[in-house]
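Follow-up to my post from last week.
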Amino acid sequence: MEPIEGGRRRHAGRDRVEASIVAAAVRIFAECGYEGAAVAAIAEAAGLSKQNLMYYFPTKQALYQRVLDDVLDDWLARMESLADPDGEPADVLRAYVKAKLRFSREQPGASRVYAMEVIGGAKLYGEQIRQRVVPLVRRDIDVFERWIAQGRIAPVDATHLLFSIWAMTQSYADFAAQMSLVLGRGELAHEDFERAEELITHMVTRAIAVA
Amino acid sequence: MEPIEGGRRRHAGRDRVEASIVAAAVRIFAECGYEGAAVAAIAEAAGLSKQNLMYYFPTKQALYQRVLDDVLDDWLARMESLADPDGEPADVLRAYVKAKLRFSREQPGASRVYAMEVIGGAKLYGEQIRQRVVPLVRRDIDVFERWIAQGRIAPVDATHLLFSIWAMTQSYADFAAQMSLVLGRGELAHEDFERAEELITHMVTRAIAVA
DNA sequence: GTCTATAATCGGATAGAC
DNA sequence: GTCTATCCGATTATAGAC
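User reply:
Got it. Predicted complex:
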C-alpha cells in the first residue's frame, strides 16, 4: 500500500510506525537496559500492542539493533566532517564540544542506550563500533596530531584528549541524574549546558594553547 | 559458629562467603545489568548454588543493594579527605585525579555498576546518592570556590570542573571497551592509564592556572 | 548451611482468525 | 496489519529433607 515516488519507499506508513516504535524503544532501553526493557512496555509507549510491534520487528534483538543503528546514524551525521584540518584548532574544537553537548541535550536517551551497550562490553555492537566509529575517531586523532606536528597546538596526547572531550560532553546525558541531585534541581536546565560548554571549552582550549 | 572477638562479628565465615558473593555479583551486574544478571550466574561465579546464595541474600534486590553499598563505601573511603583546603590546589587536584583513575583501574566493575544505576535514573539508589555522595561533592566544590575567592586558582565554574574531572576519570572504567577498540588492544594497559593521568592532569592544572 | 524439588511469574515468541 | 489466545522457556523465590 501507499506506493510513492515510483519505485523507492513503497511504505511510508510503515516507516512512520517504525520510527515511533524506535523512539519509544530508545526511551525504555535507556531507562531499563536491554534485558530490563519489556517489549510490552515499549509497545505501550509507542501506542500499539506487543503482538503488533512484533509484526514490525520480529524479535526484541532486532529492535535493539535497529535502535543502536539509528542512534549511531544520528551521532555520526552530527560528528563527521567537524574536524577540519585547515580550520583554526580552537574554533574547530569549540564546534566539536558544542556539537557533542548538543547531542547530549537533545538526545539523552540515545546517548544512554549507547553508553549502556559499551559499559556492558559492547558484546552485541562491538563490531559495528569497530567498523563505523573507530575510523572516524582515528581520522580526528590524525587531525589533532597534524596540528601538533605543525606547532599549531601544544604537544598533548591526541587520543586521550579526544577521550576526555567525549567523556566530559557525554556525561551531561549519561550522568544527568546524579548532576541534578548535586545541583538540587529536578533536571538539567539550558543554563547548565551553557555553563558546561563554557567550562569544557575553557579546559580544552587552554590545554591545547601553545606555551 | 565461629564466635570471635567476644561479642562483635560472630560469623567471620559468613562474612567471607558474603564478600565472595558480592565480588562475583559486581562482575555479573557490570556485564549484564540488573535485570540481565541471573542469580544463578552470580552463584556459579561465586562457586555455590543459586539456592545457597539465596540463603545469604534473600532476594536479588537485596544483593544488588548490598553491591551498591559496598561500591559506594569503597569509593567514598578513597575520595573523602582528598580535597584539603590548605594544600596546594594543583597538588590536591593531581592527587584527586590519580585517586579517581586508580579506582577506575582497580575496580572497573564497581564503576560500571554504579554508572548503570545512574544512567537508568538512579531509581533505586537516588536517595543514597543524595545522602552520601552529594554532601561530599558539595564540600569539594566549596573548597574549589574558596580557592577562587582567595585568588589561588582561576575563576572557573567549580561544579562543572568537578563534573568534568569525574567524567574524564570514570570513563576509563565505563568506556574501556570502546577505548580498547580505538587503541587496537584487547584491553587497557597500565601505560594507557599513565597517559590518561598525564593528559587529564595537564588539562585540569592548565584550566585552573591563574592567568 | 547445603541440597533436591517445585511453585509461581514473567516475558518473548507463535498461531491463526479477521 | 491488527487482534485474541496461547505456548514455552527462563528466572525468582519457596518448601522441606538432611
